[in-house]
Amino acid sequence: MPTAQNSLNINSVAALAKQAAPDVLSAIKQASARTGVDFAYLVKQAATESSFKPEIQSKTSSATGLYQFIEGTWLSMVEKHGAKYGLGDFAEKIKNGTHKQNPRLKQEILDLRKDPQKAALLAAEFAAENRRYMAGQGIEDIGATELYLAHFMGAGGATAFLKAQRDNPLQNAADLFPKAAQVNRNVFYDPQTGRSRTLAGVYDLFAKKFDDQSQEPPQTPPSPLRTAAVKRPSVPASIFSSFVPAPDNHTQAAFRLLSVPERTKTSAAFLPFRPLLADPIALMMLAQTELFPQNEQKR
Predict the structure, then answer these.
(1) Between the ranges 4-8, 94-98, 205-209, 251-255, where is the mean pLDDT highest?
(2) Taking the domains of the chain in order of start, what are their residue ranges?
(3) What is the SS3 assignment for 95?
(4) CA distance 184 to 178
(5) How far apart are CA 60 and CA 58, in angstroms?
């Protein structure tokens, strides 16, 4: 049943999306539509990573663009998925190693990270890929927090983290990921007390990033901690110290549903959604909620 909380969540993402330039928002919409990855997740991730700035570069790593891909991860994604999005020539040159002998070619490929359309498409593919990997490793209930952990740590690192948290959430996160903690102190340590966070504490920090995203985007992107694991092996114990860094359109159905006359028996349940009718972004978000189970994303 629709609730005021649903309306609040939809309005939050819609408000956040309005902070993006039209071409950036259009790129995210297209990426969601073409890959089936949740629009809300892609919006929140772009806000967290770059504050919707397509050309932003990290001061501490090679991370660049709307979704802050590091060089290795970007090259891997272009190689694996580029052919689907008009980058087949680049994909082939990465496969045969041509880019290694041609610095100018390599830079041309890396500069595509600043193209919001290409960045959004490959970020969506990366999220879908990470979801499949984690599910195959026994991780259940994969939501936005788990996907962002995978983007941040790599699917292998996120899997190791989530399994360790499942076993004992009170373990010291920095002890298990010392190298990661060294370069990402703001993640693994409380900036006010200096104390190391537990696994549960780090997880909650990531969850809060998405829960609070409707308030104000970050002024600078977070310190990157990503890996470009083209081949993902099973996760050994040693991994803890090694990680550094929708075809149907339901808009008309939604409009009909929201237009139930106030005199009907069920109209009260939909009152929180009435303001959404004037906002196409919010309306699109509504079409992705549990009100429309047939629109559930396919992975």
Answers:
(1) 94-98
(2) 4-241
(3) helix
(4) 10
(5) 5
DSSP state, 277?
G
pLDDT above 80 for 174: yes
109 within 8 A of 75, measured Cβ to Cβ:
yes
Give 252: exposed, middle or buried? Use CB within 10 Å, 0-12, 13-18, 19+.
exposed
Token match 């979704």: residue?
A: 67
Instruction: Name the residues annotated as catalytic.
Output: 49
For residues 69-87, b (16+ Cβ closer than 10 Å) or e, as one string?
A: bbbebbbbbbbbbbeebeb
Rounded (10°) angle between helices 155-167 and 144-153: 120
Residue 279 has pLDDT above 80, yes or no: no
Contact of 48 with 218, CB cutoff 8 Å: yes
Using alpha carbons, list the distances in angstroms from residue 116 to 29, 77, 108, 191: 11, 15, 15, 32
- CATH class given for the domain over 4-241: mainly alpha
Q: How far is C-alpha 28 from the geometric centre of its chain's CA atoms?
A: 11
CA distance linking residue 7 with residue 274, whole number of Å: 9
Question: Cα(first)–Cα(last) distance of the chain, in Å?
Answer: 25
